[in-house]
Amino acid sequence: LRAGVAPGVLGADPAVSSGVRFATAGRGLFGAVVGVAVGLTSIVAAVTFTGSVEHLVSQPELAGFNWDLLGRDSYAEIDTGAVADQLRDDPNVARVTGLTFSDVTIDGTPLPASVWSAVKGSPWPTLDRGRVPAGPNEILMSPKSLADLGYEIGDTLAVGFPLDDDNEDRRVYEIDMTVVGTAVSPAIALAGSDTPRLDEGVIVNQADIAGRGFEYGGAVLFDVVDGASPESVKAQFPDGLPDDFGAPTEWFEAAQPAELIQARDAIDVLVLAIIALQIGVMATVAHNLLSFVRERRRAFAVLKAMGFTRRQIRTTVLCQSGLVIAVALVFAVPLGIVAGRWLYSAFAGDIGVIVEPTVPFPALVVTVIAAVVLVQLVALVPAGRARRTNVTPALMPE
User: Fold this and answer.
1) Which of 47, 90, 112, 166 is the most buried (most CB within 10 A)?
2) pLDDT at position 345, please?
3) Beta bridge partners of residue 267, listed in sequence order
4) What is the reported pTM?
């Protein structure tokens, strides 16, 4: 036979059909596919998890901060009434919310409480379940605190507020309040207060405890309309937000909890893990193909004797590696996406943010293409060894 015209299956290219036959012979395909699929599944899961973390970091509302700007005074109470007078008619400002903190008790259990004042618009952070308070004595609770206390949405609780912090007996003002939903408490810290942490604490309307020491807050939050800049709000308070002591105002356009900062820092580690897994996949393929070429020296010698060119021998090996990774990807991509979403859901639920896993399709496409290209590049090494097979010694009887 002339080189390049060796018969293939159903008229297929002989090098391609030979590569497919070699790949599917015996149990070699199963072992190779399993090893590569495990590595690729881990890679896809890591990419999916990393994409969901990046989505969380880029969406502050998932961690409860659904405003555009926060103004905070250390050890000073901001005059939210004066802020309201200045911004109430400003068309660029959609919401203004006053915030302070308190310690409350429910069934004898002490909990941190954030007290929200509706200066303009809705004052509530991001909901997890249920609805926002629409009437008096309705509260939101964090999911973990609600579960720990054994209550459900719709239950009425006796919530105790301290009346006199200077009194050693800590007199308590108790209000029966109905839980109407669960929400994420944003990571906003005020000096001298016990700040609710994402999934712990209660969220109360200031109007329900008006006149009991919560007239002003240590922070004010602003939400501007689309197209407006938070800088326009800062510009209206060049000397800072009004308070009793003229304290300087700290401005923030995000409030990321420590858990999110740690998760963002972990992304670099995850990227290194993905690279390491890619190397592992390539090493697995290279090992399998080198073993295959060593074991099939006689088969390659027969192909060369039949007229296969060096290029066809290389194509045979590359088709074999291509089939292995193609079959592995069929299983690895869906399994990896499911595993990555599950891992992220467990992570997000544990730290108390809104669980919203995503599938980063562009990153997955790049990852899959990179895996295929790298595996084929690695396969060139055993392909080169197969091309150098010496026909005469390989066909001599042992």
Assistant:
1) 47
2) 92
3) none
4) 0.76
**Pairing assessment for the beta strands 156-162 and 202-205 based on DSSP bridges:** unpaired
Q: What pLDDT shows up at residue 3? A: 40
What does the pLDDT read at residue 350? 83
> Running along the chain, 398 residues long, what does each successive block of 10 average in pLDDT?
41 55 58 78 88 87 87 79 86 89 85 87 89 91 90 92 59 84 81 66 85 65 90 89 81 76 74 75 69 60 62 72 82 92 89 88 90 79 64 47
Nearest residue to 187 (alpha-carbon basis) of 172, 174, 179, 198: 198
Cα–Cα dist 350/338, whole Å: 18
Residue 166 and residue 169: Cα distance in Å, rounded?
9
Distance CA(386)–CA(298), nearest Å, equals 10
Sign of the CA dihedral running 277, 279, 285, 291? negative
Cβ proximity of 57 and 352 under 8 Å: no
Q: What is the pLDDT of residue 9?
A: 42
Helix H, strand E, coil C: the string for the chain is CCCCCCCCHHHCCHHHHHHHHHHHCCCHHHHHHHHHHHHHHHHHHHHHHHHHHHHHHHCHHHHCCCCCEEEEECCCCECHHHHHHHHCCCCCEEEEEEEEEEEEEECCEEEEEEEEEEEECCCCCCEEEECCCCCCCEEEECHHHHHHHCCCCCCEEEEEEECCCCCCCCCEEEEEEEEEEEECECCCCCCCCCCCCECCCEEEEHHHHCCCCCCCECEEEEEECCCCCHHHHHHCCCCCCCECCCCCEEEECCCCCHHHHHHHHHHHHHHHHHHHHHHHHHHHHHHHHHHHHHHCHHHHHHHHHHCCCHHHHHHHHHHHHHHHHHHHHHHHHHHHHHHHHHHHHHHHHHHCCCCCCCCCHHHHHHHHHHHHHHHHHHHHHHHHHHHCCCHHHHHCCC
